[in-house]
Write a structure and sequence with these properties.
By secondary structure, the protein is mostly helical. It contains 9 helices and no strands.
Length: 179
């Protein structure tokens, strides 16, 4: 279109937001850049922290060997996945419920070892129902059948959505009776 003098086709409203979700924006993964990201996660305001968690989550699986033969719009840099996961775990103690909830959302996508599972368990009794809701989801995904006894007790949670999600996961995870 540019060569013919025609204007490029109009993009639909919200295109930039959708494109940002499809292709992660380049991130400065140098030591200095990761330190700045860590500062946003630990000392940023409530609006910055959830986005910082999303960026940290996006960086974890980006080891060069996992990106081989895949298109990307930036040069991948080796990152310390364990340190980044620990930053997300640290966000579980943030005073803002939205930050704790976003951390649980991110942890649901990561392989977690037992110490991380133990560190996350207190969020099942968090005072905020959104945090409890995401904790139920994370634990159901990570623990499977081991989580059934906890799901049974959470089926009576004071928040209707938390109780409903616990019931749904309980039904999904319950072994079906043999015929």
């Amino acid at each position: 279109p540019a060569a013919t003098g025609e204007a490029p086709p109009a993009r639909p409203a919200g295109f930039a937001e959708v494109a940002r979700e499809i292709v992660r924006q380049p991130v400065d993964a140098t030591r200095k850049g990761l330190d700045q990201l860590s500062a946003r996660l630990t000392r940023g305001d409530e609006a910055q922290k959830p986005r910082a968690i999303e960026i940290v989550l996006a960086l974890i699986p980006e080891r060069p060997e996992s990106l081989q033969d895949k298109p990307h719009t930036y040069a991948p840099i080796r990152v310390d996945a364990k340190a980044l996961t620990n930053q997300i775990l640290g966000a579980l103690d943030d005073p803002a419920p939205i930050v704790r909830a976003r951390a649980l959302w991110a942890l649901a996508y990561l392989p977690l070892k037992e110490p991380a599972i133990v560190a996350t368990a207190p969020r099942l009794s968090d005072p905020d129902s959104l945090v409890r809701l995401l904790a139920v989801e994370m634990f159901a995904k990570h623990q499977g059948l081991l989580f059934l006894p906890v799901l049974k007790s959470l089926a009576h949670d004071r928040d209707q959505l938390v109780a409903r999600l616990a019931n749904l996961y309980q039904q999904q995870l319950q072994p079906s009776p043999k015929r």
